[in-house]
Each structure stands twice: as C-alpha cells, then as structure tokens.
C-alpha cells in the first residue's frame, strides 16, 4: 500500500506515518521541513510542502511522479485563533491563515494527488468535533480553527459525492484529543483547558494506529462518513 501524509514531521502526522510504516505501508511523508524523528522512520521524505502555498502542488507531484497512491491523509493544520477569548479580540488575519492552511490547504493537497489516485484509493481529511454543528461543544472560541474545519467537513461530503463514480472513498476523521504540540501549546496558554489536563490522552502513535484502523475500514459503502475516535459515525 502506498500513502501520502501531510504535516508528517511531528504530532499526529508523525504518529500516522509511524503506524503506516509499522504495517508495511510505503509512505510519502510530506512536510515543510523534516525532523530527526521523521528522518529516523525510514519513509520517503517529501520536504518543501507548505500546503498553504500553491507551489505545494508541484512539490507533491514531482515527488510522486507516476506512482499510484492508495491513501492520502490530509493532516497538516494550524490552530492560532484559540488565543482570542472574544469575537471583539479575534484577529481576522489569523482566521484567514487558518482557512488558507486548514481548508484550502487540504483541497490543494487533494488536487495535487488526484492524477495518482485510482479506483479503490482513499482520501482522508483530519477534522474535529469542534468544527461540526451537531457535535460542537457549547464552549465558544477558536473561531478560525473550528470554522476552517467546518469548511473541511463540507468539502469532504461534496468530494465523496464527486469521487463515488470513480470508486474513490472519502472519510473525515476526528481523532479526539491527542498529546501533540497543538494541544500542549493551547493548554499552556491557560485560555482553554483541553482534555489533555484530565489525562488519558493518547500519544500520537497510539492515535495514529486508531486513525489507520479507521482508514483500513473505509470502503465505498461508508464513503462520505465522518468518524470520531470512539468509532462513532456521523454522516
Ligand atoms: N491534537 C489534537 O488533539 C487534535 C484534535 C482534533 C483534531 N486534530 C487534527 O489533527 C491534525 C494534526 O494535529 P496535531 O495535533 O498533530 O497538530 P500539531 O502538533 O500542531 O502539528 C501540526 C502539523 O501540521 C504541519 N503544518 C502546519 N502548517 C503547515 C503548512 N502550512 N504546510 C504544511 N504543514 C503544516 C506542522 O508542520 P510544521 O512543523 O512545519 O509547523 C505539523 O507537522 C490536524 O488536522 C488537527 O486539526 C488534532
């Protein structure tokens, strides 16, 4: 199985790459810049992939060449708007950055790999329950991050419809709280207390294995589904 993962150098992306490597996947690890941990994995490194930049398409295509991809995992994302407690404080430049990376960046990644997908390939979009309407916690805040993930949920539903006739499955995966830089930085700010402070938050490799199981289970019957870390489907 051949896979491409964005944001592969740290956090959940690194955990997913590790889980895939352990299961014998041939992994294209796309990132802006590699890390010692990623370098040690022995996967194929695709550096210089800033998903917020149009040049990411050429960088991904050059690395893939004519290789056929079975799985693409759109994982790279930022959360900067957690820092604003109110709508009055919210800086719209940060919201624009979150859309550029989290929403447009995932659409761009999909555009880049489409020529390398085939019947049976799978497109995975990392999302969050905070970006849904029905499952959105009552707490406000993190406007740009959660709105950008709401956009990705809509993209996933639309893409699943369009790719169904081509036999390509799409799934949105909400990994739940994971012990990564994203959660640690937010906790350290004291502005928002994420689940990490209560303990029982999986490390990135444990969470990566859950994500990989949810990728393996995906088929054309379940295309367009949104799934959380407990396996609960919502579509
Ligand atoms: N951690 C959680 O609790 C949690 C919960 C729900 C959903 N998620 C989702 O899971 C995914 C991974 O999150 P994480 O916790 O691993 O975050 P993280 O620790 O902050 O890591 C983010 C990754 O995305 C990369 N990235 C950021 N901006 C990028 C850009 N413009 N181009 C390319 N790569 C970029 C980072 O690379 P650099 O080193 O170059 O910055 C890093 O590899 C995200 O989609 C996130 O929304 C996470």
Description:
It is a single chain. The chain has 235 residues and is an alpha/beta fold. It has one domain (2-234): Rossmann fold (3-Layer(aba) Sandwich), CATH 3.40.50.720. It is 39% helix and 14% strand. It contains 7 helices and 8 strands, in the order E-H-E-H-E-H-E-H-E-H-E-H-H-E-E. Strands 3-2-1-4-5-6-7-8 form an 8-stranded mixed beta sheet, with helices on both faces. Helix 1 packs across helix 7 (204-217), helix 3 (56-64) runs parallel beside helix 4 and helix 4 (92-113) packs parallel to helix 5 (143-163). The longest helix has 22 residues, at 92-113. The protein is globular and about 50 Å long. The two termini are 27 Å apart. 43% of the residues are buried. The model has no long low-confidence stretch (mean pLDDT 94). NADP nicotinamide-adenine-dinucleotide phosphate is lined by residues 6-7, 9-13, 31-33, 49-52, 75-78, 101, 126, 128, 174-175, 177-178, 180-183.
What topology does this entry show?
Elements (H helix, E strand, L loop, with lengths): L1 E5 L4 H12 L3 E5 L5 H4 L4 E3 L9 H9 L6 E4 L17 H22 L8 E5 L16 H21 L5 E6 L6 H9 L14 H14 L7 E4 L4 E2 L1
Parallel strand pairs: 1-2, 1-4, 2-3, 4-5, 5-6, 6-7
Antiparallel strand pairs: 7-8
The site of NADP nicotinamide-adenine-dinucleotide phosphate (NAP) has 29 residues, from helix 1 and helix 6.
């Amino acid at each position: 199985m051949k896979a491409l993962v964005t944001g592969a150098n740290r956090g959940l992306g690194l955990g997913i790459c590790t889980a895939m490597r352990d299961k014998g996947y041939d992994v294209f690890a796309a990132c802006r810049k590699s890390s010692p941990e990623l370098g040690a994995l022995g996967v194929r490194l695709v550096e210089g992939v800033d998903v917020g930049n149009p040049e990411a398409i050429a960088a991904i295509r050059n690395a893939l060449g004519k290789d056929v991809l079975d799985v693409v995992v759109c994982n790279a994302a930022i959360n900067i708007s957690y820092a604003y407690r109110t709508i009055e404080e919210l800086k719209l430049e940060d919201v624009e950055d979150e859309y550029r990376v989290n929403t447009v960046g995932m659409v761009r990644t999909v555009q880049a790999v489409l020529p390398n997908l085939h019947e049976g390939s799978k497109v995975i979009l990392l999302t969050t329950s905070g970006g849904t309407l029905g499952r959105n916690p009552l707490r406000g805040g993190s406007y740009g991050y959660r709105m950008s993930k709401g956009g990705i949920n809509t993209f996933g539903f639309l893409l699943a419809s369009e790719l169904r006739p081509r036999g390509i499955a799409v799934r949105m995966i909400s990994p739940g709280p994971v012990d990564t830089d994203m959660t640690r930085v937010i906790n350290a700010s004291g502005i928002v207390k994420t689940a990490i402070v209560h303990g029982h938050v999986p490390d990135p490799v444990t969470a990566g294995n859950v994500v990989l199981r949810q990728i393996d289970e995906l088929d054309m019957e379940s295309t367009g589904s949104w799934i959380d870390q407990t396996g609960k489907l919502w579509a």
